[in-house]
Design goal:
486 residues, alpha/beta, five-stranded mixed β-sheet
């Protein structure tokens, strides 16, 4: 049943909530969130130009993944509960439902991509928007399962509520089609942005400086990281650094293998880059080899680095860091769902961006996890115009009302343990990017083999590139022929 707009009045008294809907023609100067002494502003935004749209009470159905680990992935909330984020989502949906006379529904699936394929192949308009997993997103786009979002005039892709870095990188083909996008409609991709957590107690015990000023000065590099993690590695009475759940050794750094792919991105060495809708293989340059060897020197060193994604034996990198057995870890932010992945950690922690390759690199680069979920409109929904209006409006309201609560209250008040981390999150948020080649399935052999080299010393970079270069270019050329023929 469609919920009543009158409930907005209750939502408006939500602690720390953003300003209300307002007039369609006014200019909203600031969106401010405050909690105690914390206050932040998203900046001046022209008041949104809502469309004249009446859907007659129809459902607008999202299909999203069920059970995204430790991340806030909420599109629909049935009722207010007092939870800051949930209540803000509830309020946003009420506004959209009232303005466009529709009912927002979120269906969740453990077989997300298969359900999308089934709906498209049967021509069944049961999902108006979907968030498919990126590991097959490109192949699904290649098969014609998603709208080119440029066809929907209601999208305002140049506005603040759309992620420009991602949007610039996902255009493909001669028409620069956009088959998937990222906006503030879902917090998932901010949650899924990579950063580095560090154990403050360990840094203090070793009489090292907190790395914040190094970040501010633009000098937070892999060499600087190595100074910390090489000092942090400690056998602590154990015979070796081999994992032992009951052992006492401390690693300098821990993460999963996929971290290495993120290192290439943060070093501004995406193995495949997109420009003007065309992918280009970028491996084999002098700088690329320099980055590769630097990563091997640092993360191939036993004890300094420990890679594991295994929860069964307690060696999962998040468990290792959370138990105080690693000085640094790299993972996604994961701040919203349940209060942050390390909210129960005994030791205090801090957060810094992913390192640069060297100080001459122009800026930090914060990768969104390659496995993430992006917004799409399946072609089984025949009305891309209506979808574009609803999705853009929800994205705008999320930017105005939800992101400030998530960022300023949930992250920076409830879970951050020092003032500097708030500043670091500003840097991370403003430097996000995505490794688009992963979504299209390009270059997986090169990517995986390079991980093997860096972490385990398997093979060598020149041979890896020589072995897989031609096949990678061929797969990209073949895909582009299909995209360009659409």
């Amino acid at each position: 049943m469609k919920r009543k707009l009158s409930f907005i009045l209750a939502a408006l008294i939500l602690a720390s909530c953003a300003s209300g809907c307002g007039s369609d023609t006014k200019k909203s100067n600031e969106t401010t969130q405050s909690s105690g002494d914390t206050e932040s502003t998203t900046g001046e935004v022209d008041e949104y130009n809502y469309a004249s749209l009446d859907l007659g009470g129809k459902d607008f159905v999202f299909l999203t993944a069920d059970g995204v680990s430790n991340m806030y992935n909420t599109i629909e909330v049935d009722e207010q509960s007092g939870d800051l984020l949930d209540d803000a989502v509830y309020k946003r949906n009420l506004i959209v439902e009232d303005k466009y006379n529709l009912n927002i529904v979120n269906e969740k699936s453990s077989s997300l991509n298969e359900d999308i394929q089934l709906a498209v192949n049967s021509g069944d308009n049961i999902y108006q928007a979907t968030f498919p997993l990126t590991n097959t997103l490109g192949s699904m786009a290649l098969e014609g399962m998603f709208w080119d979002l440029n066809k929907g005039s209601g999208f305002n892709f140049d506005r603040e509520w759309w992620d420009k870095a991602v949007m610039d990188d996902v255009k493909i083909g001669k028409d620069k089609a956009v088959y998937f996008a990222n906006s503030d409609l879902s917090l998932l991709n901010f949650e899924a942005t990579w950063c580095m957590y560090f154990n403050r107690r360990m840094v203090e015990d070793l009489q090292l400086d907190m790395p914040y000023q190094t970040v501010r000065d633009g000098n937070w590099t892999f060499d600087e990281l190595y100074k910390y993690i090489s000092a942090g590695a400690n056998l602590n009475g154990d015979d070796s650094y081999k994992w032992n759940k009951d052992g006492k050794c401390v690693y300098g750094f821990t993460s999963m293998d996929d971290f290495i792919t993120q290192c290439y991105v943060s070093s501004d060495e995406k193995q495949i880059k997109f420009e003007n809708g065309e992918p280009t293989l970028m491996v084999g340059t002098d700088r690329f080899y320099q980055v590769t060897e630097k990563l091997r020197q640092i993360f191939g060193e036993t004890g300094t680095a420990f890679f594991s994604n295994n929860k069964d034996n307690g060696s999962h990198y998040e468990l290792v860091f959370g138990a105080g057995r690693a000085m640094f870890t790299a993972c996604e932010i994961k701040g919203g769902n349940g209060g942050g992945v390390f909210s129960e950690m005994v030791d205090d922690y801090g957060i810094v961006p992913m390192p640069k390759f060297d100080a001459s690199q122009s800026s930090y680069i914060s990768p969104i996890a390659v496995w993430t979920y992006f917004l799409t409109v399946p072609v089984s929904n025949p009305d891309i115009e209506t979808a574009s209006i609803v999705l853009d409006t929800m994205s705008y309201l999320s930017y105005r009302d939800i992101v400030p609560i998530y960022y300023d209250v949930v992250l920076q008040v409830k879970h951050i343990r020092d003032e500097e981390t708030s500043e670091m999150l500003d840097i991370i948020r403003s430097t996000r990017t995505y490794f688009t080649a992963y979504a299209f399935g390009f270059g997986s052999d090169i990517r995986n083999k390079l991980i093997g080299y860096v972490v385990r010393g398997e093979g060598n970079p020149a041979s890896i590139i020589a072995t897989y270069k031609d096949a990678t270019i061929e797969e990209m050329d073949k895909a582009m022929e299909t995209f360009n023929s659409k």
